[in-house]
Amino acid sequence: MQVTRATFNDVMVPNYNPAEMVPVRGEGSRVWDQEGKEYIDFAGGIAVNVLGHCHPELVKVLQEQGAKLWHLSNVFTNEPAMRLAKKLCDATFADKVYFANSGAEANEAALKLARRYAIDHHSEAKDQIISFKQGFHGRTFFTVTVGGQPAYSDGFGPKPGAVEHCEFNNLEMLAEMMSERTCAVMMEPLQGEGGIIVPDPAFVKGVRELCDKHNALLIFDEVQSGVGRTGHLYAYMGVNVVPDILTTAKSLGGGFPIGAMLTTNDIANSLKPGTHGSTYGGNPLACAVAERALDVVNQPEVLEGVLKKEALYREILGKINDKYHVFSEVRGQGMLLGCALNEEYAGRARDFMVAANSEGLMCLVAGMNVIRFAPSLVIPDEDIVEGLARFERAVAAVVAG
C-alpha cells in the first residue's frame, strides 16, 4: 500500500501537524525520507533515540528477544524485567522499580504512589501536590494537570484537585505554599518542554529541605533529563540532591517504548498487590532493549563524551550567533540544549525549525521562543559540525526573511 504525507490528513486524528517529509529509514544520526533525501537528526525522537537510529547492539538484542518471548501478563515475571530493575537499582538511589510504557504512565504511578503513601503514613487530608509553572509531566489527565502549562490541561472539564503550581527557581514562593498538608513536590531537575531551563542548585537543595521539613515526598521527573542526557546517568547526580521517587522513560528504551518509576523500599510498600498496574509494563521485549541501552550508556566514555559534545555545540552556536544575533542565550546541559531567541525573533522558534528541516536538519522547539536539540549521546562530531552548518543556513534564511 502506497502512503504519503497526504494520507495522514485523511486517516489520522488532527492533534499533530507533522512535517511534510515522511522519514522511512535511519542509521546513527542520519535519516532518509520517502524521496531519498538525507537529514541529520538533532531531534532524537524528542530525546528518545539515545544511541541514534538502529544501533547494532539494540537491533541485536531486539532480534534475540523477539525470537524468545514478547509478552506475558503480570501474573508472571520475566528475566529481562528483573535484570533491568536490578541494574537500575544498582546504579541509582532506588531499591524498587515499577515498569510502565511511557513517561506519562511512570509519572501517573509516581503521583498515585505519593498520595497513597500520604494516606498510609499520615492522613487523607495530606493531599496537596505542588509542581512548577512551565513544567511538563505527560498527557494523562492527572499528569497534564500537575504539569504547569494550562494550554495543555484546559478545556477538558473539571481537573483533579489539590494540585498547585509554583514559579520555578522561586524558593520563597514554594516555602509559602508548603505546609503539613503537602503530600509531594514534583519537578524536573532540568525543565524540558518549558524551555530547557536549568534550576539554580541552591533552589534544588532548598526544595529537598522543604520536603523534609513538611514530610512531603520529592518526585524528580527525569523522563527527558535521564539516562545520560546531562552527562550524568541521571540529572539528580549532578545537583547532589536525592529524590524520594524518580521517573524515567524516553532515552531508557533507546526508541522502544518503556517507562519506569524508581523509589525506596519504605515508599514502594504503599503499592500493594492490586493498587496499581499496567498490562504491558515490564514486558520482555521492552526490558531487554532497555537493559542493553542502559549498559551502553552507563559507561564513563559515553557520559564524559556527552560533555565534550556539548562544548562543541556551544562553540559553534556561539559563532553562528556572533554572525546573526538571533539568540539571547544557549541553555541546557549535555545533549539537551535550547537556543533561546532574543526579543527581535521572539515567538518564531517554529520558523527556525521549519527552515532547518528544509536544509536537511531535524530539530525541535521548546515553546515558542526556544529551538531545542536533543540528539543521540553518541552522535559523531562530524555530524554535529555538518548539522550546525545546515542550521546556520536555516538561521540565515530566517534572518533574510
Automatic annotation (TrEMBL):
Annotated N(2)-acetyl-L-ornithine binding sites: 139, 278
Pfam families (alphabetical): Aminotran_3
This enzyme's EC code(s): 2.6.1.11
Bilayer-crossing regions: none
Pathway it works in: Amino-acid biosynthesis; L-arginine biosynthesis; N(2)-acetyl-L-ornithine from L-glutamate: step 4/4
Record-linked InterPro entries: Ac/SucOrn_transaminase_bac (IPR017652), AcOrn/SuccOrn_fam (IPR004636), Aminotrans_3 (IPR005814), Aminotrans_3_PPA_site (IPR049704), Class-III_PLP-dep_AT (IPR050103), PyrdxlP-dep_Trfase (IPR015424), PyrdxlP-dep_Trfase_major (IPR015421), PyrdxlP-dep_Trfase_small (IPR015422)
Residue numbers carrying N6-(pyridoxal phosphate)lysine: 250
Domain of life per record: Bacteria
Keyword Transferase found: yes
Cofactor binding annotation: Binds 1 pyridoxal phosphate per subunit.
Any GO MF annotation of the entry: identical protein binding
Top-rank EC class of the record's enzyme: transferase
Swiss-Prot/TrEMBL cofactor(s): pyridoxal 5'-phosphate
Assembly information from the UniProt record: Homodimer.
Protein family per UniProt: Belongs to the class-III pyridoxal-phosphate-dependent aminotransferase family. ArgD subfamily.
Additional note from the record: May also have succinyldiaminopimelate aminotransferase activity, thus carrying out the corresponding step in lysine biosynthesis.
Protein name in the entry: Acetylornithine aminotransferase
Species whose genome carries this gene: Brumicola blandensis
Native organism taxonomy: Bacteria, Pseudomonadati, Pseudomonadota, Gammaproteobacteria, Alteromonadales
